[in-house]
Amino acid sequence: MKKEKIIYWVSTILFFLFEGVMPAFTSQTELAKEGIRHLGYPEYFGNALVVFKVLGALVLILPKLPVKLKEWAYAGFTFTLLFACISHAAVDGIDFQTFMPLIILGVLVVSYYYYHKLRFTSKA
Question: What is the pLDDT of residue 123?
C-alpha cells in the first residue's frame, strides 16, 4: 500500500507541476503566446486553456474532493493532451513536440490508475 501511495503522489505531483504550475507561471510570456498562435488558435483560447488547466490540476492534487469531479478532470486532461498531440502533428509534422503531450499523458495515466487502485483498496 505504501508503494502505491508513493507512485500515486509522485505521478500526480509531477502532472500538477507540468499542467498546473508551469502554465500558470508561463502563460503570459511571449513564447507561450506565440506557441498558441503558431498552432492557429486565438489568444483567448490560450487564456481559457490555462484557467482550466490550473483548476483541473488543483482538483487532481487536492485530496477528498468528489470522485466525479476528479474523473472529469482526468477526462478533460486526456482530451486536452490528445488534441495537443494532434495539433502539433497537423501543424509541424511529427517531431518531439508531437510526442511531449503523450509523455505527459503517460504520467496522467499512472496517476489515474493508482488513484483508483488506492480508492478501491481503502474500501476493502
Answer: 63
C-alpha cell at 47: 487564456
Question: Low-confidence residues of the chain, pLDDT below 70?
Answer: 123-124
Amino acid 89 reads: A
Distances in Å between the alpha carbon of 104 and those of 16, 40, 52, 99, 118?
10, 22, 17, 9, 21
* Measured distance CA(71)–CA(92) in Å, rounded: 31
Please give the grid coordinates belonging to residue 44.
Answer: 483567448
Enumerate long-range contacts of 5-14, CB under 8 Å, 24 or more apart.
5/114, 5/118, 7/110, 7/114, 8/111, 8/114, 8/115, 8/117, 8/118, 11/107, 11/108, 11/110, 11/111, 11/114, 12/60, 12/61, 12/111, 12/115, 13/61, 14/107
Cβ-contact 84, 107 below 8 angstroms: no
pTM: 0.91
C-alpha cell at 123: 474500501
